[in-house]
Structures are given as C-alpha cells and as structure tokens.
Amino acid sequence: MAVNSVNVHVFGSDDDVLYLGPSGLNLGNISLETAIPKEMIDTGWLTDDGVTLGMKDSVKAIQGHQGHANVLQFMDSSDTTLEATLMESQLQTFLWNLDADAEDIDGVTKITAASSRKVLNLCAIWDTFDTQHDGIHWRYVFPSLTLGERDDIPFKVGEASAYKYSLGVLEKFFVFTNAAAMKAGGAPAKTVTGVKITTTDGATVGLPSSLKVGEKVSLAAEISYSDGSKAVKQTNAVGLTWTSSDKAKATIDGGVVTGVSAGKADITASIDGKTSEALSLTINTAA
Length: 287
Description:
The structure is a single chain. The protein contains one helix and 21 strands. By secondary structure, the protein is an all-beta fold. The strands form five sheets. Strands 1, 2, 3, 4, 7, 8, 9 and 10 form an eight-stranded antiparallel sheet that branches.
C-alpha cells in the first residue's frame, strides 16, 4: 500500500488555542489567518486530552414485511459537541461555567453564583497546529454553541482544579486548513521526493565518520517535498525510519547512533519509499 506521511497529522502543539466568546459575534469573515475578534478570550492551558469534536449519531432501520429484513436506514438523531477541559481560572470562563456575576468590592472580587444554572450561548474558534509538519494550521470556527450541563469541579490535594466545557454545536461550523491534501479543487497532494541525513543542526557537512564502542552520536534528517518545501532537523517524524546495516556493530533509534562493537555499519533514513544515501561509520574499540 502506498504511504504518504505528509497526510498524517499529529496535534497537541504548544501553539494550540481555544478561544471562547459571547453569542452573537459575527464570525462570517473569519478565515485561517484572520485576527481573532477582541471580544473572544484565549482560554489558556488545556489538559492533555486537548479538544474533542464529538459526534453522536443514532440510526434506525425500517424493516420490510417479507422476511423482516432491513430495507432502509435513516438518521434518528445527530449531535455535535466541542469538548475541552480548561486548566486556567480566568474570570470570564469561571463566570460562564458557574452562570455567575462578578463585582469589585474594595479591590476584592465578589462572585455570585446561581445554585441552578441556565444554558448559555457562546461561540468558539479552535486553532490547532500539526506538530510533525511545520506550517500546517487547522482552524475550526463555531458561530453558535451552548454551554449546558456542567461537570463537577474537583478540589483535590496535589491536583490542579479544571473546568470541563461540553459545548453543543447548534449551527453549521467551518474548518479552514492549509494542509496540502485537503486542498479543494483536486490539486495534487504534497509527497516526499527525497531524504538526506544531516547533523542535528541541519547541516550536511560535519557528519561523523567514526565513533567508539559505547559512544552515542545524534543525527537528523532533511525531508524534501514535491512542492519544494523541506522539513529539517527531523528525528521522529511520522513515517521516518532509521536503519543500521549491522546492528551488531551499531544501532540507531530516533536518530541516535550507539557504537556496539568494532567494525563498520551504514546508517540510512527512509520515509514514504525514499531512502537517503548511506552514512558509513567506523566503530572503534574504546581506548
């Protein structure tokens, strides 16, 4: 099966941001790089679970009279949610979660929270970035959301308190991305055209030619793509594999070569059917 690692996206970048705002904001002009409306709040750090786009569908079947076989299926219900757990205690997101109001009294914030909460209408923008391919950006725009059922807020010893937002998506939402394989109009997908071994600084000069038994040296890969772009200083990119021609002499894992015994070994990097020129290493007995 043909493999194209360019199309495998891994999220969880430190640059990912979930913005929340009050309902009624005009998000119709938002695109991939448009500035975020000033009324929206950067919710800050999220838990490791990140953001989840939940899709809850229920299908029913109609059975025919003869044989009682299913002759038709239809969608009985279909709901979409946006879920995230916020780690930062910011005033506005705290107030939304508790359906509360705040006032300043001599420099102290007094929050008045209702014992019974109402459904609140919000909007959201979710910016997420591919951690494996530089410059790949996805933006989800939700013009209309509801904050309904809230989860407990735990206060546990040694654990950060967090606020779980489960937001119902009321209307159409929009996804913008510059990922090559997602380009509308049938444009050809970006593919890998070559790979070469480099130093961890991305240089092709200054590569090692020898190491001692027990010594370690770090390498990286430069990956070239059909659109002329390159990914440099890669060690564990999706689909990238490192190979030693003789593991009894030298091993390699994640770009780190370890000398095992005296002799010679060739190191190569491969991705999507493309293999680098071999880096020949001589392993010497430690003095």
